[in-house]
């Protein structure tokens, strides 16, 4: 990608974006991914910033701005997502477009999500072969659950605006979620 003001290539900035979490440890994982990516590909990607789509900072606007402040003229957003869900199709393009407006003269692209790839398959196989997680007996408490009994029913996160009826598999919008469907606010 060339600098729109000249014939020389624009300095590349990379924003690696995940969903974001209320858990600091999850957000710190993305910061580590960005740091490792920057170190491994420093010759091609001199500017790399982490971003969270929501729930944590830096958000996409802050990361885009940090790239520009560090000299980037062209920003590539790398979604740390597996598929073409609503965040990839709607939220990330919208948030990136809003961020870019504040930096006239910059250009940006949004790369494909991680998707189905031989490298993902290799990573799944690596996890399968790993012997670093406990083997649990049916009904035994998983240590990750801490004080939550293993048999407590939990089918989704509490921040999702949708509900899944376990018996009918019907998905409905939670009352009070703020989601608008069919012209009706829920």
Main features:
30% helix, 8 strands, 18% strand, two-stranded antiparallel sheet, alpha/beta, 4-stranded parallel β-sheet, 186 residues, Rossmann fold, 4 helices
Give me a quick take on this structure:
Helix content is 30%, strand content 18%. By secondary structure, the chain is an alpha/beta fold.
Helix content: 25-40%
* Uncertain parts: none
Mean pLDDT across every amino acid position: 85
In what order do the strands lie side by side in the largest sheet? 2-1-3-4
Strand content: 15-25%
Radius of gyration from the alpha-carbon trace, in angstroms: 20 Å
What's the shape? globular
- Give the ordered list of helices and strands: EHEHEHEHEEEE
- CATH architecture classification name of the domain at 12-110: 3-Layer(aba) Sandwich
Q: Quote the distance from N terminus to C terminus.
A: 44 Å
Helical segment tally? 4
Structural class per helix/strand content? alpha/beta
Overall description:
The protein is built from four helices and eight strands. It is α/β, with parallel strands linked by helices. The protein has a domain at 12-110: Rossmann fold, CATH 3.40.50.1400. The strands form three sheets. Strands 2-1-3-4 form a four-stranded parallel beta sheet, sandwiched between helices. The chain has a two-stranded antiparallel sheet with strand order 5-6. A two-stranded antiparallel ribbon has the order 7-8. Helix 2 crosses helix 3 (86-101). The model has no long low-confidence stretch (mean pLDDT 85).
């Amino acid at each position: 990608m060339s600098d729109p003001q000249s014939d020389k290539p624009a300095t590349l900035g990379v924003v690696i974006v995940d969903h974001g979490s209320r858990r600091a440890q999850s957000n710190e994982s993305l910061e580590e991914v960005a740091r490792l990516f920057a170190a491994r590909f420093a010759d091609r990607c001199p500017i790399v910033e982490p971003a969270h789509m929501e729930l944590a900072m830096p958000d996409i606007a802050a990361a885009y701005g940090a790239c520009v402040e560090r000299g980037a003229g062209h920003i590539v957003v790398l979604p740390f997502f597996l598929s073409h869900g609503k965040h990839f199709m709607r939220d990330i393009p919208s948030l990136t477009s809003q961020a870019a407006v504040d930096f006239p003269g910059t250009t940006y692209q949004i790369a494909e999500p991680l998707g189905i790839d031989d490298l993902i398959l290799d990573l799944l196989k690596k996890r399968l072969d790993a012997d670093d997680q406990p083997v649990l007996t049916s009904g035994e408490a998983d240590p990750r659950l801490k004080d939550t009994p293993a048999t407590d029913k939990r089918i989704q996160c509490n921040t999702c605006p949708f509900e899944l009826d376990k018996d009918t598999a019907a998905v409905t919008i939670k009352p009070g979620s703020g989601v608008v469907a069919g012209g009706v606010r829920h």
